[in-house]
Amino acid sequence: MAQCPVFAPYTRGGSSVAVKNVRWSIDEQQIAISKLGVVDGNSQDLIHILDISECIETPPRLDEFPGRRFDYYDNSTTWVIQNFAWDGQFLFTLFTHKRNGGYGDLWVYNTDLHRAEIINPIGGNCCYRDPYWSPDGRHLLFLYQDQSLGSETNTQLYYAAFGTIGTGLSYAPLPLPEGFFQDPRENPQPVLRPAR
User: Fold this and answer.
1) Residue 188 belongs to some domain of the structure
2) Which of 33, 47, 55, 177 is the most exposed place for a label (fewest CB within 10 A)?
C-alpha cells in the first residue's frame, strides 16, 4: 500500500490508528483491522472492515463488530480481541477470553448475514484460541484445551473442514510429539503454508 500516501502509514484525520491485527480480503480490495473503540461508553476492541480499493484519506467502513452486532463480551471483564481469522470473503472467527491467558469459546461471524454464533467444534465444549483459515476458506486450523480437565488439560491442534462443524462429526487432533505444547498459557499462533 506504500504507493498510496494516505495508507503509508494509515491514519485517520491526521492521527495514528493503533491497529492490533490486520487481515486482507482475497481480492486485496478490503482489509479487516482490530483496534480499540468505544461502544455504549465502554472501551473495547472492534474489528473494522475497510474498503481500500481507492486511495482516499478516509476509506469507507463496510462493517464493525462485535460492538452491537453480537454479545461477544457478555459477562466478560476482558474486552479484548487477541486474534481473529478471516476467510477473505464473509466469514470471521474469533475467540473469547476464559482461561489460560486467552482460551475461550470459538465464534464465527458472517458479514453477509450480520450473524454470529458460538461453534465450539469439539463436542460443543470450551476452550479454543488462534483460529486460522486455509487459503481456500474450506478448513479451519485451531488450538483446543478441554476446560473440563482443569489443570490436567493439554493443548491440541486441530484441522477441520468448516462445512462439517456442527454436524456432530468427531475430530481427531493432529499428531504432535509428546509435550509439544509445554505451557498451557502459551500463545502459539499456528499458520498454514502451501505444502511442498
Assistant:
1) no
2) 177
